[in-house]
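Dear support,

I submitted the protein below through the web form. The confirmation email said the job was done, but the results page showed an empty box. After a refresh the structure appeared. I'm attaching both so you can tell me whether what I see now is the final result or a partial one.
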Amino acid sequence: MAEERISSTMLEEAGLRPTAVRQRVLTSLLAAGHSLSHRELTDLLVGLDRVTVFRSIKLLKKSGLVHGVQGIDGTLRYVVNPSEKQGCPGGHPHFFCVACGNMSCLADQDLPHVRVPQGAEVGGKQFLIYGRCPSCASAKPLPAKTRSNRRGSRYA
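What the results page shows now:
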């Protein structure tokens, strides 16, 4: 499978040993073609416990191979940061579908520049747009309540 060869190469290039667990986690993220939550990964990776999957994700994030984005539902989803020829480099906005839960990178757009107070240390940044993806939007229009940007609005 092409994803397995790619994941092995990516791990080696990041200076990580391509263990079976790391390869399975990275291969699953690559094969999915969209972000996956810890629970979704654990469900896919039969035979691996959730702690092992979590430790692998943590190492992949630290090595820069994966980034995580929290959706408005509070769930952290993970996306592969492959080489430039494969797509998502991080540092860009994301779109979260409130209907199906898929998160997609908007890699062709930059994050807005924000000035923080002098002396502040930024620990991270995230810009999330949410609504319905094209597939879900064509199935049923977004309820009026969800169109609001007000805090606490319900989503589908």
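Response: this is the final, complete result; the empty box was a page-load delay. The chain is about 35% helix and 15% strand.
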